[in-house]
């Protein structure tokens, strides 16, 4: 299964902010985390992640600094800011609404019968 | 092959990859560092999974996707680095490279169109010398319509957008010509000043085209405006030299080129230069690009010093601004220049850069401009209460209030920026969001003032 591009783009901001809300992190680790959390279904490109991180930084939602953790390379770490946390809360509210609505819609469809039946009727 | 040898080879591959990345103008050194770290992360993971070093490198590079795609995404986010981005103007859809040639033809057509249109009224007996007021009101229409047309063509603007642009230019033409304005009326002068501003913002609409909501694209237009001005001045200087030689050489052989110069060379050259300057900004951005930040860095401290000296003088002599009308206009112009300087500086600033000395300096500039604006406002209000309203004074009052709000907002956001309370983005948003206010005011002056003041 490949998640549609629009959907990936729309969900990218809350995902990145959510991951950074746990702890400060850097690009490669964020990408790996997304991959793990989605069970390998979400495979972001670098062309998506880094410009997004830079945009969030421009908007003041995250701040970055080059740091050297002992025994590792020098890395650009991103840390969520106060406005970033507020943005995350706002995005969460919006996503909750979307997810709840979808659940309701799909629950209703479940009572109508299995999906293939619907497509048959529509086709007839 | 020893492990050490493999490691050396891997480092060589990283170095080579790095060279490719650094050739991309969209990517800065810090981006290359960040991406290199990412690549090293993937290589390490793949090696840990059992691949050999060079296999891991190949797979990791492949996963990163093509550099073209990566650069395009970076360019979208960092339009200030590469606002000339051909990618964003549609030129990349023409892989054969015929884009610039078609551009050139469109430019020639638009510049020629402007030159022809400025001479058309002459067919109906309107003369530059005798009907100066007609040309004063309409000059911007002859030039800017074609510039907007060229930009809309380049952006491949949709039908709705083109209709909107056309409607606005028609509205401008109507406003400039249907009101019965006398040769000596103040309204004529005010229309001649405000119509170009209103139409310039219509050009801006053509520039941002379908992305008129985007704050970044509006910032690009501010950048465009500054660079266009630089190019236009350069062309005008060259034009002056050309004119001087034309006059001198023809006079030397006993012919008088004065009619040709004043009736043809100057008007046609001026309107064509408006279009050509716009094309130059679109086609040759990188040439002037590096001058813009230098110019602002040079003049921001100088203007700040002048404003502070002036304010100090006002304090010492303890007089307000009690001056003639001409001097009042001078102060207004000064404030507009300060605003232009501030906008241009912002458009050239790296939005991710931490607040620095220059931002403090700008805060000082804006704060002193704010003080001058208050003094000017007091003087205008004093004059209005003493002599009553005129179109001039009301226009000046409105402009100063609009500038006051803009400067106050900018000062507040700059203060917060310097104190690291808010990102630069907020300031950018404030300025780009303010553009419609300028547009609305300029249109209001052009459309509403003449009837409101009885065509005085």
From TrEMBL, chain A:
Keywords recorded for this protein, A-Z: DNA-binding
Organism superkingdom: Bacteria
Transcription regulator PadR N-terminal domain boundaries: 16-90
InterPro entries with a match to the protein in the record: Metal_resp_DNA-bind_regulator, Tscrpt_reg_PadR_N, WH-like_DNA-bd_sf, WH_DNA-bd_sf
Molecular function GO terms recorded: DNA binding
Cross-referenced PANTHER family: PADR-FAMILY TRANSCRIPTIONAL REGULATOR, TRANSCRIPTIONAL REGULATOR RV3488
Protein name: DNA-binding PadR family transcriptional regulator
From TrEMBL, chain B:
Keyword Transmembrane: yes
Coiled coil: none
Family annotation (InterPro entries): Perm_prefix_1 (IPR047928)
Keywords: Membrane, Transmembrane, Transmembrane helix
Entry superkingdom: Bacteria
Transmembrane feature ranges: 104-122, 134-153, 160-182, 188-208, 228-253, 259-281, 302-321, 327-345, 357-381, 401-418, 430-453
Keyword Membrane: yes
Annotated NCBIfam families: perm_prefix_1
Name of the featured protein: DUF4153 domain-containing protein
Species whose genome carries this gene: Actinoplanes digitatis
